[in-house]
Write a structure and sequence with these properties.
The complex is a heterodimer.
Chain A: H1 5-27, H2 36-54, H3 56-62, H4 65-88, H5 107-134
Chain B: H1 3-24, H2 28-48, H3 52-77, H4 89-106, H5 118-121, H6 130-135, H7 141-161, H8 179-187, H9 189-210
The chains are: A mainly alpha, B mainly alpha.
């Protein structure tokens, strides 16, 4: 598919917009619709579209496997770590009051933002992993999706 | 009958057509694309029902990533549906029974847009649901509009009464303005943490099961 000019240009030009919109969704999650899950899915979709057009090996050059492996665990760690931080400060697990003890309700947006980043990182990494592992059997140069093959 | 209801009916008719087309079409690439269109229409429908967060997720997950993953799978499986059986009666009956149970379950819920439903009566959120109250099939819609206006006036009076303590009055009760996010990652934070763990476990399972395949030229990574 990388010989197809239309696909190549579309993939290359769509990617930054998808990533920016994903970041907007991520950082705007507690104010408007959106949040970590949607943002993670969009980040993954941007990379996977790139991988479908230029080949999985090209995508793994940008996002190597060890990055997604670490990121998948890191997201859960950020989420649970926020909870453990609240416990260390003497509150209950995931009680966001701990982040700003003097101001009830003030810590909630910060806690939620941190937690949403955790969700987003895990979802993005796992979705990219799913794509990697599904297209794994094909040889590197064949891992582009060739519509004409049907 | 108002304009929004007509749009809803058009969307639902298109949803039905795409659902049947997804099952009937033989080319699996086409089926994947039609199911993507189905998700996009569904997202439009959620938006029309004021469920913007659900619409967002439907568009990102249903129309976006699952279509991509379906197409990625079709590369391995081939894109033609080979065997087509006649109607499989036990499967059809099971589906119909499950659908009937689901519909029976919804009978206990308040009617769509019912002004007396608990969700419509909360003073904080009543402003978000005007459209649904007006669309309600329960009662006549102009009565619903009057009920809505009365509720709005009451909320306004309540806000003015609180006005003298405006700087101390925490309108969101310590929560962030988006009530969906507030419920998902604060009220139900524990739940969401384990949902994240489920996603992580799914990725881990894929890595353990598929990455070690023999003759795999891409073997590598941490594991």
């Amino acid at each position: 598919m990388k010989d197809n000019v239309l696909m190549r240009i579309a993939a290359r030009w769509n990617m930054p917009f998808m990533l920016i919109f994903a970041l907007y969704t991520q950082t705007h999650g507690e104010l408007g619709p959106g949040g970590g899950f949607q943002s993670g899915v969009m980040i993954a979709a941007a990379f996977i579209v790139y991988g479908m057009v230029f080949g999985g090996h090209e995508m793994r050059r940008i996002v190597p496997r060890w990055v997604t492996d670490i990121a998948a665990g890191l997201g859960v760690l950020i989420y649970a770590g926020t909870g453990v931080y609240c416990m260390l400060m003497g509150y209950e697990f995931l009680d966001y009051t701990a982040i700003m003890p003097g101001n009830p309700g003030g810590g909630a947006p910060w806690g939620m933002t941190s937690v949403e980043y955790g969700v987003g990182i895990t979802v993005a990494a796992v979705m990219i992993t799913v794509f990697n592992e599904i297209t794994e059997g094909t040889a590197p140069e064949d891992s582009t999706i060739i519509m004409e093959k049907q | 009958m108002n304009g929004i209801l007509i749009i809803d009916l058009i969307l639902l008719a298109l949803l039905l057509i795409t659902a049947v087309a997804t099952v009937e079409v033989r080319n699996l690439f086409a089926a994947a694309m039609i199911s993507s269109i189905y998700s996009l229409l569904m997202a439009c429908f959620w938006t029309s029902m004021d469920a913007v967060d659900v619409a967002y997720t439907e568009a990102a997950v249903g129309a976006g990533i699952s279509t991509i993953l379906l197409i990625g799978t079709l590369v391995l499986t081939g894109s033609r549906e080979t065997v087509r059986k006649a109607v499989h009666w036990p499967a059809l009956l099971t589906c119909l029974a499950a659908g009937a149970v689901l519909i029976y379950g919804t009978l206990d819920m308040p009617a769509f847009g019912d002004p007396n439903a608990p969700a419509q009566q909360h003073p904080l959120y009543s402003g978000y649901t005007q459209q649904n109250i007006v669309k309600s099939p329960v009662g006549k819609s102009h009565e619903n509009v009057e009920a809505y206006n009365a509720a709005q006036a009451e909320a306004q009076a309540h806000a003015e009464h609180e006005g003298e303590h405006a700087e101390h009055h925490d309108f969101y009760h310590g929560h962030v303005p988006n009530q969906v996010t507030s419920i998902i990652v604060d009220y139900r934070a524990f739940d969401t943490m384990f949902e994240t763990c489920v996603i992580f476990t799914a990725g881990l399972g894929l890595i353990v099961l598929l990455r070690g395949r023999k003759g795999n030229p891409l073997r590598g990574g941490l594991l």
